[in-house]
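Troubleshooting: if your tokenizer reports a length mismatch, compare against these two reference records.
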Amino acid sequence: MRRELLVNATPPETRVAVLEDGKTVEALHERRGHQGLVGNVYLARVHRVLPGMHAAFVSIGLERDAFLYVQDVLPRTVEADGEERSPASEEAAGFAADRARIEDLLREGQDLVVQVTKDPLFGKGPRVTANIALPGRLLVCLPGARGIGISRRITDDAERQRLREILESFPPGAGWIARTAAQGSEVADFLADRRYLEEIAARIRRKAENASGPLLVQRELDIALRSLRDLVTPDFAAIRVDSPEVRERILEFLAAVAPELAPRVELDEGPEPLFTRFGVEAEIENALKNRMHLKSGGSVVIQQTEALVAIDVNTGKFVGSGALEETVFATNLEAVGEIARQIRLRDLGGILVVDFIDMEDPAHRREVFERFEQELSRDRARTRLLQISEFGLVEVTRQRTRGNLERTLTRPCPCCAGSGRAKTDLSVALDLRRDLLATANLYAPGETLRLRVRSSLARLLADEETEILSEIEARLGVRLALVEDDTLPPTEYEIL
């Protein structure tokens, strides 16, 4: 698979896209004044301790306090990107979190160092943890933690053992995780990355010891450098940048953390915009739509709600050439790859429910699930799938840390308040009738009332539902004149 990173810098926005065999699978945006908080380290001040919720609100200097759960205060061993805990250790960790009391760990007015793990979403403040994780190119440093871990994406047993031996040689005092990009790297590269992360940890410690909260202690890298650190692995064929200034910053960063990648950085100054030439603009526009069409004629419909994301597969125009079961199976298999790609591209998180077309054959259901699991294994966000049900449903949970593509690029419709629906013209006409009759005492007999309405509503009242105006004129003793104005929102009108 050929993988490329595209960086488009057009102030006040920087965008990054990841391509796999020419297809866009990730698109990230960062705008001036709207940078995410995830990864930032703060010296926070405990504002309120909530024993009933096993949590605390802490101030990090923002309008809304951050939320800190009791399990995020307890010291931890290496997990997450690294090795999975054994069932016994998972049970012990859960038991410890259940027994711990937030009021015994924190007090109001106390200062402590925290890191943001989830941006503010749905009107809630950010989520933070007292267990700091500092990512580098090859390693993640967890100051004060215990243990070592290896990225699950590194599957070769011999390589995992080699990396384990390297990490075990590190001095105590921190936990360490070897990231996916660490595969095949030399010992000298690990030592350089370790020194870089230990310097950051020491700087955070010194700053926190000589200050009082709330205070920003360490800001996360901007999106261009963060993408190089987190997304680019040795198998990336090219890093294309359309800004000379950003290219220089990238080269300077790579010289310090991954000099072997520097020759792959290309300045793209072609006549056609970078994202347009590689089809990224079209993919972003399509990702803002609810319906994605499949080559066979079927379709995938994606509906985002506050509670979950519903994904539905339809056969559409695809009728197949054989039995219905084979047609359904072929459509579901085709949809699997597109659904996995759209989940990554749109950065959908939380609970996702995928409604595949019902399949009678258990072997078909098993193959669709296994293919879906295989496609999602490429996703860098943590995902968990439940087996496909007899109704064709697959439940997925996916790590959510930042606002997804839709919430980044769009806002709720001012007319429908984000519901995606608006009243019909007939419903608005009946609302207008009720308003006029309810305020009958305001109008003098023989008076002419001008009704400012949209042209579609004017046509309905003048040509299709003429009795509405006739009834109002008769009951109020007034004359009504329609004034067309398509600048009005779809559900609004004015009585002049």
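Reference record two:
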Amino acid sequence: MNRRDVLVAFAALGVTPAFAGVTREVIRIVVPFGAGGIADLTARAVAEALTARTGDTVIIDNRPGAGGVAAGEAVLRAAPDGRTLLLVNNGTAVSAGLFNHLPFDALRDFAPVSLIGTFDLAILVDAASPLKSLRDLVAAAKAKPGKLNIATVAVGSTQNLAAELFKSKEGIAAQVVPFNSTPAVVTALRGGQVDAAIEILGPVKSQVDAGAIRVLSTLAKYDISSWNGLAVPAKTPPAVVAKLNADVQAVLAMPEIKRKLAALDVEARSSTPAQLGALLASETRRWSEVIARAGIPKQ
């Protein structure tokens, strides 16, 4: 018998059960990307698990927009009661160094709750490429400085800045060529327009599995990965943040959620609020330095 049947049965007897007056909260996770991407799918998996665990209704509110402005403003204006959460990510850290003026300071205006997942960026080549290893790629770039082309999505994206950081760490001169979408990057790679590409592994995994493109290395080798976490307005009471953190940690420990996220090439990973705060601060510093070194103009 489900909850509704129980209520109907009690009503027929003229009795009101103790749980009948319990009100479920509606909790929003505001995602700064459109539906269907890795961040969105990760947030939806976590939201579904939180709904089952807490009895509250956890929904996803997609607010795509440059710099995460629309999403950030929506959470900034929300009551600090734990009912509105922001999906923060390495893009949040990038935006701090990429934009001259944002309506919020992520480190000041939001209180971290927990990390929820990490996922790899990969260095890719076409299946027919003569570059068989990362060592081959670096050697080719050093043999002909400035001639090697590396495709990424848009200037200022995590992938684009990861390419700049890769160049810096390996001490190579290569051209980073931006495209407007992941499919365009893959098309250019397979068509021989570029020598290599850097992209989040999840969205291209089907192409890798099909043998159309090859992974030379993940950027974990360079301590570069993508991540998602959750935050709330800065004035949210610590007890509320602690409760949210406990719930998130509990659902991310569930084998079912680990499997669901692993299918997206995401490693379910929680943290303390302090750990997420330290990660956001360190990533903000690092990507701001990469942006300055690459000479990318602020927007």
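Descriptive notes for reference record two:
- The first strand starts at residue 26 and ends at 31.
- Confidence is low (pLDDT under 50) at residues 1-21.
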